[in-house]
Amino acid sequence: MNDPHLPLRFSVPKTATLDTLEAVLAIARRGGLHLAALELDSSAAHDTVFLKLRALEPDLLDLFMTRLHNVIEIIDICPLPEKVARMHVA
To answer: Which domain of life is it from (predicted)?
Structure first.
């Protein structure tokens, strides 16, 4: 599959993880993106989400990143050079 993909990482407060994930995944779905992988790391002070999305067009990924910056509970958004390899929720 040669679809454009976007691996990224962001952090959220532990008290808002599920609500924030719901908002992020809704933005992705409405933007025509497909979830390729999701991993949640709860070992730090904040929950860290590793997410990989796929799109038919790279512009859809750019639009998603712009919209992601408007989600209130997200602390730091960092696109990753490596792929998120597994789907896992801990």
So the answer is: Bacteria
Ordered alpha helix ranges (H), 1-90:
17-30, 58-68
What are the residue ranges spanned by the domains of the chain?
Answer: 5-89
pTM of the model: 0.82
Q: How far apart are CA 59 and CA 5, in angstroms?
A: 11
Q: Model confidence over 22-46: pLDDT tens digits? A: 999 999 999 999 999 999 999 989 9
pLDDT digits (tens, 9 = 90+) for 70-85: 898 898 898 887 544 4
Q: How far apart are CA 88 and CA 65, in angstroms?
A: 22
Alpha carbon distance 10, 61 (integer Å): 16
CATH 3.30.70.260 fits 5-89, yes or no: yes
